[in-house]
Structures are given as structure tokens and as C-alpha cells.
Write a structure and sequence with these properties.
Blueprint lengths: L6 E5 L10 H9 L3 E3 L10 H6 L9 H13 L6 E5 L1 H11 L5 E5 L12 H6 L1 H4 L8 E2 L3 H7 L6 H11 L3 E2 L1 H7 L21 E6 L7 H10 L7 E6 L12 H14 L14
Parallel strand pairs: 1-2, 1-3, 3-4, 4-7, 7-8
Antiparallel strand pairs: 5-6
Amino acid sequence: MFHTRIPVVLIHGLWLHASSWQPWIELLEQAGFAPIAPGWPGIADTVEEARAHLEPIGDHGIDDVVEHYSAIIAGLPEAPILIGHSFGGMVAEKLLGLDRGRAAVAIDAAQIKGVLPLPLSALRATLPVFKNPANRHRAVSLTAEQFRYAFGNAISEDESNALYDRWTIPAPGKPLFEAATANVSPHSPDAVETGNSGRGPLLLVMGGRDHTVPESITKSTLKQYRHSSAVTELVEFPDRGHSLTIDSGWREVALRVLDWLGEQGLAPATPAGSASR
């Protein structure tokens, strides 16, 4: 048990602002951790500002994001726990493979190099980016209808629309293009050090109804770690879609993550070390 507050770095994915982690931050603080949720490079501090300033968001690739979070981690007092969603989950995996964190949780994480094939639903969810090759260097927004398919298919339309209004921002297209060509690129930034047996434990979380990262992607990701003896585990929420970190069921996911961290010996021994359920 730890007697100091363990840092936790929460990493958002495409189309969601970092502030969408706020409920998780409050729960993690209550549990005795020291969480932070920095945005990707070029993304403004608020949803409104990010929507108004697209140009700084565009043309940031996977390596840019990894270097950005590596610099943040370097300024922390000790190695953090990494929790990421979607492309943020893939970034968390990459950082863990580089030994930048003590453990990682990758929630509905984007595919890493080696994962094949890409299901049709994932292609449809990302079509707003791929339909124009110039989007590789631009920031791209989703419509409410596109968000409903990609994120909110397992919740009501009203809740999906409310989440869209509250949290969505434009996202850089470049990481999607990099991931799409990863398996034919010898030095793809989408590659993860899956064979690292000295890394910390990894939890992969998948939603059984996710259109953007269908469960076949997460199961294939798990197989990529078969040559590592480090802890790599998988948990499924069968009835959840890609919105599982921000919708009305987020707490169930967060509490399961806290339980897993406790199982790995990473529960803080502080007076605040138990989150209310």
C-alpha cells in the first residue's frame, strides 16, 4: 500500500475534450489518488475555445501526442498510473510500453500495429475523417448524428445529444491516417512495445456494443501482448458503447478500474482511500 497520493494521468481520445474526465477526477481524488487530465497538444482549455480554434488542433500525430504526455509525466514526482480512452487508450499503452507509467488502463483503445482486420463499423465511425485525404492535416468535427453512431449507439438519443453538446470538440485527422497504414509501415508511430515483460500491469476494457472500437479489436490487441509475461488483463462491459467513460454508466466502469488497481497493489493507503459506491 502506498502512503503518498499516486499520480494518475487521464488521456482523452479523439472528439472528446479533456474536461470530460472531470467526474473521474473527483472519484479518483476521493479514492486517494492525484489525478490530472491534460489535453492533447494544441487543444484549448475549454470546450468552447477548442471549438472556436481548429487550426492549432490539426496535424498533430501519434508521436506528437506521446511526446506531449511524456513531457508532462517527466514533471511528476513519481511514475503515474495511465488511464486512456479510445486513442488515449492506445497512447497509454504506448507510454506503458516505454516504461513511462507504473500501470495502464486502456478503455476501448484504438487499434495498435498488428491488429487486423478493421471491422466495418469502425470504418463507418471514422468515415468523416477518411472521406477527404486532406483531413490528414486538419481538425475534423463530428455531427450529432455521426457522434450517435460512433459513441452513443448504446444509450438514448437524448443522452447522446446531450453528451455531444457538452463534450465534443474537433479532432486531428492525422492519428487515424497513421493507424490505418500501421501494418504496412515499418516504423509506424502506432506500434507499441507489446513484448516488454518488465512493464507495469495493463488492463484492457472493452464495450460489447462499441462501433468505433468493436470488441474484436480489443481481443486482437490482447493477443499482441502474448509474448510479454507482464500482467495483461481484459474486462468487458457487454452492453456498453464508446461513450462508456462519459455517459450515465461511467461510474460502473470507473469503480471496476479502481478495483483492478487495488488488485495490482496500487490502492493508496490514505484516509481518502475508499471511493463511495
